[in-house]
Amino acid sequence: MKKSIVFLIVVSLLLSFGTALAAVKTVDGQGCPEKAYKPRLKFEDCDKDNKGFLTFEEAQACWPNLDKKTFDAIDTNKDGKLTKEKLKANRERYGKAGQKKE
User: Fold this and answer.
1) pLDDT at res. 59
2) How many whole angstroms separate alpha carbon 74 and alpha carbon 79?
3) Do 90 and 60 share a domain, yes or no?
4) CA within 13 Å, CB half, 2
5) pLDDT at residue 18 above 60?
6) Cα dist. 48→13, 20, 55, 57, 86 in Å?
7) Mean predicted confidence (pLDDT) in 76-85
8) Shared-domain flag, residues 29 and 50
9) Alpha helices in the chain (DSSP H)
10) Residue 63: which residues within 8 A CB-CB, separation 6 or more?
């Protein structure tokens, strides 16, 4: 009797654990939980009006943590526009982590 009760408890725990794992949403079947997945935005995704540059508003819509000071630092010719070239030059200067390369 005791063995059957223990067996039922173990089976029910295993079933509930399996159900919890199946309930986790994944992205592209890679096993990465949906909350942890942050797709890398392409320039074209941010350029909503397809003009070939990003205004501060467009850039901030893609990267909410972007402040005006950082935008202005990337906008080296101070025309109020970020182009693919300016973003690439900034990545080459600072890398992905935002730290200036030696």
Assistant:
1) 93
2) 11
3) yes
4) 0
5) no
6) 49, 39, 10, 10, 18
7) 95
8) no
9) 2-23, 43-46, 56-62, 68-74, 84-94
10) 41
Question: Where in the sequence is the domain holding 11, given as residue range(s)?
Answer: 2-36
Residue pLDDT, tens place only, 21-79: 455 455 455 555 555 556 677 889 899 899 999 999 999 999 899 999 999 999 999 99
In a domain, 24, yes or no: yes
In this structure, is residue 64 part of a structural domain?
A: yes
pLDDT of residue 86 exceeding 70: yes
Residue 50 and residue 81 in one domain: yes
Mean pLDDT of 10-22: 57
CA distances from residue 35 to 74, 84, 87 in whole angstroms, order as listed: 29, 28, 27
Please give the average per-residue pLDDT across 9-19, as a whole number. 60
What is the distance between the alpha carbons of residues 99 and 91, in angstroms, rounded to a whole number?
A: 10
- For residue 57, the domain's CATH number is 1.10.238.10
What single-letter amino acid sits at 56? F
